[in-house]
Amino acid sequence: MAPLHAIHEDPDLLVLEKPAGLLCVPGRGADKQDCLSARAQQRWPDALVVHRLDMATSGLVLMARNLATQRALGDAFAARQVEKRYEAVVDGLMPLSDEWALIDAPLIADWPRRPLQKIDAAGKPSQTRWRALRQLTQQQATHVLLEPLTGRSHQLRVHLASIGHAILGDALYASEAVQACAPRLMLHATVLAFTHPATLQGMRFVSEAPFSWRLTVGPAASRISP
Question: Which CATH number is correct for 5-213, 3.30.2350.10, 3.40.640.10, 3.20.20.140, 3.90.180.10?
Answer without folding.
Answer: 3.30.2350.10
